[in-house]
Amino acid sequence: MSPTPLVELSRVSKSFGGLHAAQDVSLSVYPGEVIGLLGHNGAGKSTVIKMLSGVYPPDSGEIRVNGKPVSIRSTRDARAHGIETIYQTLALSENLDSVANLFLGRETTSFLGFLDEDAMEADARRTLERMKLRLPNLANLVSTLSGGQRQAIAIARAIHFNARVLIMDEPTAALGPEETAKVGALVRELSSQGIGILLISHDIHDVFELAHRLVVMRNGLVVGTVKTPHITKDEALAMIIAGAMPRPAAN
């Protein structure tokens, strides 16, 4: 594993009036690493990912990309630094096909300024092949796709535009077991290609299946960071509920 994280938060804080949504939060994501960000509603997870994705500017602390301090004040800044976010809503247009959604807002045009649909379809196919994904027909409207296929399109959009860090907010919410497994396989494939993934999920079973490390938050604070193989699910739940690292077993 590289000694330099792809992205790193160092004592980052954000308040809204008297509410300390995130306090002195530190975490890092290395190439190919999947980080599971855990905590109850209101723990501060959403605030953290919104600071990383440029929705909220941090009040204090530092964000580093590839070891260098950066200023992320907008989603455009985040994307320029290779950070893409896939929210639970996916932000897909139901009345457009897969290719149009993959390039939504960042379409390829010819030298005359017209949409280059052939180039976009070819690029879409290459991106899906890189992710080892197959869709029945790229011309089908997104409204006809399954939940897992929609998730794949949203991920492909991020990967096509050179995401190095992918923030995934509840990627398996409302998916059945089969599609959840497919999304899990996709996360593993992206990890094997060196993409860092910050995974936010209420499903602790999915997180344990995919994450290399866990970061647990409570009341805006990081309770602890631990390698997944070094902790049980019950201990992780105890961290979420009690807000403390598990005690080491007595000798």
Which fold does the CATH topology of the domain at 7-94 and 163-242 refer to? Answer: Rossmann fold
Mean pLDDT: 89
CATH architectural grouping of the domain at 7-94 and 163-242: 3-Layer(aba) Sandwich
Strand percentage lies at 15-25%
Protein structure class: alpha/beta
* H-E string: EEEHEEHEHHHEHEHEEH
Instruction: Classify the helix fraction into a percent range.
Output: 25-40%
| CATH superfamily label of the domain at 7-94 and 163-242 | P-loop containing nucleotide triphosphate hydrolases
Poorly predicted residue ranges: none
Quick overview of this protein structure:
This protein is α/β, with parallel strands linked by helices and 251 residues long. The protein has helices at 45-52, 75-80, 98-102, 117-130, 147-160, 177-192, 204-210, 233-242, and strands at 7-16, 19-29, 34-38, 60-65, 68-70, 83-86, 165-169, 196-200, 213-218, 221-227.
Written account of the structure:
By secondary structure, the chain is of the alpha/beta class. The protein has a domain at 7-94 and 163-242: 3-Layer(aba) Sandwich (Rossmann fold), CATH 3.40.50.300. It contains eight helices and ten strands. The strands form two sheets. It has a six-stranded mixed beta sheet with strand order 6-7-8-3-9-10, sandwiched between helices. It has a four-stranded antiparallel beta sheet with strand order 2-1-4-5, covered by helices on one side.
